[in-house]
Amino acid sequence: MTSSNAVSNPATQRRVAFATIIGTTIEWYDFFIYALGAGLVFTQLFFKPAGEDIGLLLSFATVGISFLFRPLGAFLAGHYGDKIGRRAMLVRTLILMGAATTLIGVLPTFAQIGIAAPILLLLLRILQGVSAGGEWGGAVLMVVEHAPADRRGRAGALPQVGVPLGFLLASGLMALMTGVVSPGQAFLEWGWRVPFLLSIVLIVVGYFVRRSVEESPVFTEIAERGQQTKAPVVVLFKRHWHLVILAALVFVGNNAVGYMTTGGFLQSYATGRLKIDTTAMLIASTVASAVWFVATLIAGRLADSIGRRNTHLIGFAVQALMAFPLFWLVNTATLPGLYAGLVLLSIGLGLTYGPLAAWYAEIFPASVRFSGVAIPYAIGSILGGAFAPTIAQALLQATGTTTAVSWYILIATLVGAAATLCLRDRRGIPLGPDHEAEQASGATIFAPNVAHRELAAKP
């Protein structure tokens, strides 16, 4: 039987890390390619009868509505991930996301089948939301539960970098399609479909990579003992509801700001209002994604050295400082201003995203950890990112300026920072099932820090 303090050997850790990055990148590529499509083409192809302004709001609303179904994916994946394993759920969510994305690539437009087109588009986006809701928790636990205690921050940053990598891949491919392969009208006619159709190739690769890795050692031990919780979601909300709320609010501070770019609002604003070339905007988004990627990796290392909580607070400070300068720079309608705004914002996003995986995993007990990680992430994505592009667009249309959007970014950031201050850093806490009592206590500043007292007492 495995020891609750055991970790995988380095070769296994490397395989798990590689599989996690590949799978998460593919999953979020699919999710973000839709958001870019919403900002660039779906208004004309699926919502044109509503008019440009209303059509753009409706297009962004389909991005947000899918978030409402992410908790369903999190509940399902959390329930079965705590019962049948992390790896099995990762494979299922990957297939679901890929199938929905590929079908969007062959979907007829409003001009071809009328009102059925936006309805089908929304249904496929909902399937993407269900998949995304279950994906993240499994990916996080696979790497964090395989990692040694002093490297969990770095390990946990690996599924996180799949998000900027997915956006980098999506924005880079869209830039290639608009600028080289299918410029102008050709992009509207057929070019936009290619990035969606490519998903089927990526899913095949991701499937075989994920099937090749071993199950998490923590879940393996739970399964060997027959200690799976019968109703993990019920137990989670009965005993740890306060942690669910605080963890979700931490993510609000990152997600609302992140979806200014990944949700398509800034791309639509820059190409529509400011008349910046679409390909140039997409290239700038790609560069910003690369910065976000690097900042996320750095944040993982910082999380292991100065703590998850401190790294988050530094990141939220950067986001708050950039809330107004972001649009001051972008509104210059120049490429240097656009690059500077996106790059500086991406640094804050990376610092508030990199430590999240390890911190979430250390907050919740082993028996309900999949549910505990997945559900706050899904709730935080609804409260933060779901309708961030729609809200930003509505504020822009109502006020005529981006000042209100900056206030929105600042308020979301302060919410995340406040929740961060309410949680304790849990570096070094054992993750195995032998330590449920330690894991279930002292995660907030409002409760006795029993776990760390016991850790400090150990030789």
UniProtKB/TrEMBL annotation:
Membrane topology per the record?
Multi-pass membrane protein
Q: Known InterPro entries for this protein?
A: MFS, MFS_dom, MFS_trans_sf, Sugar_transporter_CS
The UniProt entry, under SUPFAM superfamilies, shows: MFS general substrate transporter
Keywords, in A-Z order: Cell membrane, Membrane, Transmembrane, Transmembrane helix, Transport
- Give TM regions: 16-42, 54-77, 89-113, 119-144, 156-178, 190-209, 240-260, 280-300, 312-331, 337-361, 373-392, 404-423
Coiled-coil ranges from the UniProt annotation: none
Record CDD domains: MFS_ShiA_like
Question: Where is this protein localized, as stated in its record?
Answer: Cell membrane
Q: Which Pfam families match?
A: MFS_1 (PF07690)
Predominantly, its location class is membrane
Q: Where is the Major facilitator superfamily (MFS) profile domain?
A: 16-428
Its recorded name reads: MHS family MFS transporter
Organism, as annotated:
Pseudarthrobacter humi
